Amino acid sequence: MLQHINALKMQALQTQMNPHFIFNVLSSIQDLIVDEKNKEALLYIARFAKLIRFIFEKSSELTIPIAQEIKFIQLYLELEQLRFHQKIDIQLNISPSLLDGDQLVPPLLIQPILENSFKHGLMHKEKGGSLSLVLHEKDNGIYCCVEDNGVGRIKANEYTKWKNQNINSNRTSGLVVTQKRLDILSQETNCPSNFLITDLMNEKQEPVGTKTEFLIPFNSKFF
Fold first, then answer.
1. Whole-prediction pTM value?
2. Three-class SS string for 190-202?
3. Of 149, 144, 172, which is closest to residue 160 (Cα–Cα)?
4. For the domain 2-217, what is the CATH superfamily, name and number?
5. Considering only 53-67, 127-141, 145-159, 166-180, which range has the smallest mean pLDDT?
């Protein structure tokens, strides 16, 4: 019974994630149209359609092969590169064994972390933005590290206050839901996710980015 309840919780949290992501992508397309960048907008829509198809196809699944999750991430990053006019240096460090891997993970688990880096760190950086994603097998799961050289969480909160937005709404929802999903997965696999967010500082203790690390426990037998 407990396993069944947690399966329902995981599915509910996964469904909660999708509208948040879709809203932000549609806002980006709207900005392109307003700026009369029609060719870019059409390309964005075509790639976004692929993402929507992926979401619809996987929305009823609690787990998917890691290779499919990686393909989704790569498509998402292409869209962000288009939105930022190729100004963000993106580095992917993914173990070759995962590119065609069949290890099962919850869908749309990594994307919200990447989105957070773009929306709240790199968006406020004038130039020289960079983002890295590391994925490799570790212990009984997949180690994930997302690192950016954005303005940092403290500065991002200041921008949010300046815009009179609710800091605890769009800013944190993706991270909170991801943590909850990882908590459920950890409970069922008895493997801690070790979710950790580090505020990166330079020698003067000035913010120079954010690093988010966690472990996705292997989920081959659950569900």
1. 0.83
2. CCCCCCEEEEEEC
3. 172
4. Histidine kinase-like ATPase, C-terminal domain (3.30.565.10)
5. 166-180
